[in-house]
Amino acid sequence: MESVSDINLADNLNAEKPNPGGEDIVTVAAPVYGGRLPGMVAESLCRLQGNGAKAIAMVVYGNRDYDDALLELTDILTQCGFNVIGAGAFIGQHSIFPTVGSERPDMDDKRELKAFGNACCEAVMAGRQGGLNVKGKRPYKKIAGVPMHPQVDRKVCRSCRKCADMCPAGAISPAEPYVTDNDKCISCGRCIAVCPHKARHYAGLKYSFVNRLFVWGFSRRKNPEWTVADR
Ligand SMILES: Cc1cc2nc3c(=O)[nH]c(=O)nc-3n(C[C@H](O)[C@H](O)[C@H](O)COP(=O)(O)O)c2cc1C
């Protein structure tokens, strides 16, 4: 292995993208929002240049479904000039309804990830390029936003601005970090995860109701699905 570099687009959607050569392998992983890629992630990925490099496409979803997200990611990478040799959908904790997928990824998921990685390596060694069978339909599912946004407990918020700094959508005012612009908020919950004072939560009657329905409807275990070039 020559070198590995890691870019987290959640830190900066405009981060300098890699400029791979034909011998490189680029793994692109994205979360599933509403059965699609988050819009701003898709836009950012469209600016990648594949230059014929091999790519592995991965999506992570919260145990409901990944619908057309993996197909969308595979299509974007192909249009950018990558040669996609593997594509997989894996399960993580749901970031809005965290009881769903709460223990994921677990040991079984990690075993599947390893099997997927090994199969991708074999495909690269054998020079396989085609035959991927990715679930999804074109045209993709319509994008639907989530009509719920994290709320702030003003008594607990210390205005440290960490949430404003880390919000990928720029939806939190640095001057008044307890104010969120719901038109910009993509409901990703990163502000909840990074708040050192635990001042942000999903809450309210509507949330409790939808949470119950969601837990009831989508708690049954889903398993990873992947496909690797076989010719
Ligand atoms: C706005 C939003 C929409 C989501 N839509 C879906 C979905 O359609 N299907 C699903 O199974 N999980 C869905 N999830 C759960 C995420 O795919 C899952 O929690 C993923 O691990 C989030 O990764 P992240 O924390 O890096 O954003 C959604 C999460 C958010 C915040």
Describe this structure in words.
The protein has 231 residues and is α/β, with parallel strands linked by helices. It has two domains: 25-141, Rossmann fold (3-Layer(aba) Sandwich); 151-201, 2-Layer Sandwich (Alpha-Beta Plaits). The chain has helices at residues 39-45, 69-79, 107-125, 162-166, 190-194, 205-218, and strands spanning 25-31, 54-61, 83-91, 151-152, 200-201, 225-228. Flavin mononucleotide is lined by residues 31-35, 60-65, 92-96, 146, 187-189.
Write out key terms for the chains shown.
231 residues, alpha/beta, Rossmann fold, Alpha-Beta Plaits, 2 domains, four-stranded mixed sheet, two-stranded antiparallel ribbon, 6 helices, 6 strands, 26% helix, 14% strand, binds flavin mononucleotide
**Approximate strand percentage:** 5-15%
* CATH level-two architecture of the largest domain: 3-Layer(aba) Sandwich
- What is the 3D shape? globular
Report the radius of gyration as a whole number of Å.
19 Å
> How many beta strands in the DSSP annotation?
6
What portion of residues is helical? 25-40%
Strand order of the largest sheet: 1-2-3-6
Catalogue the unreliable spans. Answer: none
Tally of discrete structural domains: 2
The level 1 CATH classification of the largest domain is: Alpha Beta
